[in-house]
Amino acid sequence: MVELTKTGIDGLDEILNGGIVSHSTTLLSGPPGAGKSILGLQYIYNGIEQFDEPGVYLSFEEDTTDLREAAESLGFDNWQHHVDAGDIKIYDKQVLLREHDFNASLEILLEELDNNDYRRLVLDSLSMFGLFFDEERERRTYLLKFLDILGENGLTSLMTTEQEAGYPEKDINMENFLTDGNIYLLQTPTESGVNRYIWVAKMRKKNVQTDIFPMEIDTGGITVYENASAFSMLNEDDSPL
Description:
By secondary structure, the chain is an alpha/beta fold.
């Protein structure tokens, strides 16, 4: 039987048919403002709050204070308590970008992973991760190496990446093929704001519900609704992958 890691996010574990495959890496894609970082914060926070699973949060875009304020604004009131207790370990942009050398950052992470019993990891984001490398081939080589390290250390990981296209089939990156799972966060503008959706396009080793589902962001984070959506950004000639 495939071991699963629950996200603890209302509705998401249901469409994942129990959760994310443990020790895998899932790519979380979407345009700016779609909720990728929020989902990552919620995944790490729920890990320790609900399942007693410590986690690591790697942020190439925010510092520790930004992350704390974002978490607390969502109602994750015990975020700082878990950070102080060592159950949530944060490496922010000031640490990760200090040496301008991924090998140096990787050595710091390896020491942390070897000495602690972390179960979850979020990397936010792969777009900023790419700043370490001058060549695309080098970036992909190190990404593969990093993915192997995460799996060997028993981590179930989420990685975020920017997805500019309105419909993701038209803008697929190599990372979509390297990772075990692909989840897209989508949004469409309305007169009163935006409608948000989530699509689990792929999850190796298990079946998932691949319809597109509505979601919202409010106090408490993301909630996914199980009534599948007639996704308004698709026309009659388009269909999911």
